Fold this protein.
Amino acid sequence: MFSLKQKAVVLSALALIGCSSDDNSSNNNSETNLQKGLNGHLTHIGSYSTGSVNEDGGIAEIVVYNKDNKKIYMVNGALGSIDIVNADTLLSDKFTHMRLYKRIDIAAMAGDKGFSYGDVTSVDVDTKNDIIALSVQAKGYADNGSIVILNYEGEFLKRYEAGVQPDMICFADEGRYILSANEGEPREGYGEIDPKGSVTIVDMSEDTVKTVDFTAFDARRGDLANSGVILKKGSLPSNDFEPEYIAVSGQTAFVSLQEANAAAMLDIAKGEFTDIKPLGFKNHNAAALDAVKDGVINIAAQNLYGAYMPDGIAIFEVNGGKYLLTANEGDAREWGSDTDITDSLKINGKKVETIDISQKDGLETDKNYLLGGRSFSIYNTADMTQIYDSGSDFEEFIAQYYPAFFNASHTNNELDSRSGKKGPEPEYITAAKTNEKIYAFTGLERFGGVMAYDITDPFNPQFYDYINTRNFNGTELAQMGDLGVEGLHAVSSEDSPTNRTILFTANEVSGTIAVFEIR
């Protein structure tokens, strides 16, 4: 594994440290004043601010673009709304502050239309049928949620019943289907109800709804654990699996089961899961990391193993092959007094957060496992073998070019504050094609910014660029630029208002949307 130091064509580090999205005021309207990525391929050309910040996140969570009306739709979890924002003012090589067009109060809509509201979690756009779809969780944590259909103006059209805690929504097969990933988390602790995880399939052509769970895999529990699928001891897969994200290829949906470190395959037309594959473990004896919070940078091999546990996933195709991208965040289960992590392991006298293997099947008892891989990976969908992992790239890069803030969290600038946990925490991933090349974009939730790789050859990805629009000189959240990357959305040059490929990032702590142009 080559380091990013060996890969990158570097601009001056002074152009990177202390840059801020909000410091780029409306006066920054020339190319020379625009913040660019390390290699100049990513340019920060726009922003939108909700006007709110929250150290617990939940403000600007998911963003999608509508090519028909050149607006973005953003989940504003803090207000229980969908913000519709004008993006038609975006220009190539110019900085633009996008303006709010309309705010749709989903909580109020639920009361008016008679469905239960607990949270709005995701949004997607279908330009074939001129609609948007929302996933809405019910107020009761064990109650079925909703798939809500709106027109482009945010007016209510229809509501379908989803499974428990729908967390992500997407269209499939050119708008024929709507899919929601329903987590079914035991939010009041394992002594209470652990709802079944599931995927809801709405067939728009037939106006039918089917929610598919994992009951068929309960009889295969032993085989799943033996293959490396992580399961809570004493639990059944149908209760333990918590679908996180969905990526669609043709009639197959790939579903990330984050805490289980696995992916499920769903036959959309048949409405049934066909397989579940483990995603493997990262050997940190070979792939170095900084696993110790001790106030210094020390990226080194450790006798540790990482459970990849991806959050966001995406599909791309090249040369007839189909590949799955994973953002290897990692996630603990902490409900009430229950937790599946421990800090009993010490390295150099410092505590390191690991998975409590006494509570798990699917792990070897003589190894210590970390949450996440601090990387992105590529899997061949034909057999779900991993063909690439970015190794220690992300931490090496941050150490080299941001040494004073290495592994800082999204709410502080403290050096090394996240090393003993999940490091930079890759959250979300997406792919886009531009200039006949295919690129993967990974958002780093804790440290911030977007890593871009050329994945045209999926067996040999190359670092392309990195941009971070947080302001390390800020002392309060409102002064710290873009914080807490949660969702990404890429727009092709054919659909983009700038006529170039662009990328939107939703930053849940700072309550902002950042826009990057790619060349």
About this structure: The radius of gyration is 22 Å. The first strand starts at residue 42 and ends at 49. Helices lie at 4-7, 106-113, 221-227, 237-240, 393-401.
